Structures are given as C-alpha cells and as structure tokens.
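Ticket #4471: structure export looks truncated?
Reporter: QA, pipeline team
Priority: medium

Steps to reproduce: submit the single chain below to the structure queue and open the exported record.
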Amino acid sequence: MSLDYSAVPKMPDGRTAAEHIESVATTSRAVRVPMGNGGTMMWRVWGEGSGKPILLLFHGGSGSWIHWIRNVQPLAQHYTIYAADLPGLGDSDSPDNVRDIWSVTHCVKHAVDALIPRDRDFAITGFSFGGMVAGHLSTLLDERLRRIVFVGAGGLKATRKPTEKLHKLLPSMPPQTLADEARRNLELLMLHDPKNVDGVAIYMQILNTTRARTRSRDMGIAGALSIVLPQVKTPFTGIWGEFDSTTYPYIQERIDLFRALQPDFEMNLIPGAGHWVSYEAAEAFNTRLLEVLGR
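Actual output as written to the record:
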C-alpha cells in the first residue's frame, strides 16, 4: 500500500516537502557502494572533487540522509560531504542482522573503505543512532579518522526521563491521521518547540520510519555506545540540543561519562533546541560544528 502524503503541510512557497527534499538531493551525487554482504549502501556526496576536507554524516535511528537536509549545503562550502543512508535505513540495503550494531558497523566499514580514498583522512558527525555507529566504526579504522562529533548520541547507559510512547505509522492510516501521528512523534522525540514541526519534518518522519528495517532503538536500549566507548581512541566532541528529549535534564551525567574516558572532552549545548538539533537550530548547529571541526 502506497503512502498518502496529501495532508502534509506544504512549504511557504507552495512546493511540497518532497519537492523541496528533491531540490536539495539533486545538488549531490548519489552513489551506491558494496557493503560486503551482497547489498549496497547509498551515499549522497556534495563537493566531490573539490579537494576540501572530508566529513561523513551518519543520521539517526529510523532515518536517512534527510536528517541533514538543512546542513549539507552550508557544510559543503567547507567540506566534501558524504551523507550516508545507514544499512537497513533510507535507500540502503539491510545488514545481515538488523538487531546487531556490529552487523551494521561492518557493512559501513566495507562501504567506507570502498568510497573514501585510502590517502584521505576524514571526520564523522553522528546523530543519535549515527553516533552509536560512529563509535563502533572508529574501533575498526586507522588514524585516517581524526575526530568524531557525537550529536545527541544514543546508546548511552545514562538516566533518561520517561516519555510517552511513540505511535507506529502505518500506510493504511487516513492521510490526516498519518500526518497527525507523525507530528506527535516529532514533538515527543525530535523537536523541542512544536512550532518547528513543519511539512518537511512530517514528510521525513513518515517516509523514513515506514521503510526502516534496522532496529536501532533496540541497540540504543542495550547501551551499545557505552559498551564500546572505552575502546574508542579517536578524539570526540559533543553537540547536544539544550532540551534533547533523550537527555534533558541529565546532560551532566553524559558529560561526566565522556570525560571519564577523554578528560578534554568538550560538550557544546545549542540553546532552545531538542534532539534533532541540526534541523531545529540549523544555523547555530552548522556554525558550532564548523568551529569544532576547525580546531
């Protein structure tokens, strides 16, 4: 059954969310690379051949490269951007085991080796589930990986305030119900201010969650990042939204956890933003990320 997006609000200029997303996608090159299990992993590349430093972007759980839609073009002014669709999510094929973080990670490692020239170093910015993947991947890479920026990273064994359960989005839902439930989930998890839930966010939420196969939430509940962090030798930095629903008001607990492993760890809080800080406070996020990577 196909999805009906007719109740998703349009852009202020009258375009649909899908048209806006496509307009950004067409400024990139889409490339599929093998990920070692017979499947392929989708990447979108901005600034290819520019000679600029390389930055890999790993999106959040049940997501795709669209999590970075407000970031890829501004960041591409300074970096060659490789925005992944992680295995089992977006347009990428599935890992062998959709419930195992290492199954996902080994697929990403194979794809990165096929995609990034061996003589180039790079950094990774990982949002939520993407932070989990970045942490695990770093243990399999050499010194080419020079920094990880964790953005609202999941998989940490730390205190989290109870919240209402998200509702499953189903293609069989009437269009308005589908849009309303997507909005509710975004308000609960992703964005702090309900006024910031727009048509692009709603469209993204419907599209990505209804096609997600990798069970990123299960990996997060298991504390996957906390388990692997002691093995991570790559320098890492944090960027979090002030009101991240997965963290607030327990941010200091995360800072202490990171600093116990890397004493010079720096946490950057973006005021007024929620979990999906790179979207809700895109300008502030882009500025801060460039500062962090430039140090």
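Status: closed, not a bug. The export was complete when the record was re-opened. Leaving a note from the reviewer for reference: The first strand starts at residue 29 and ends at 34.
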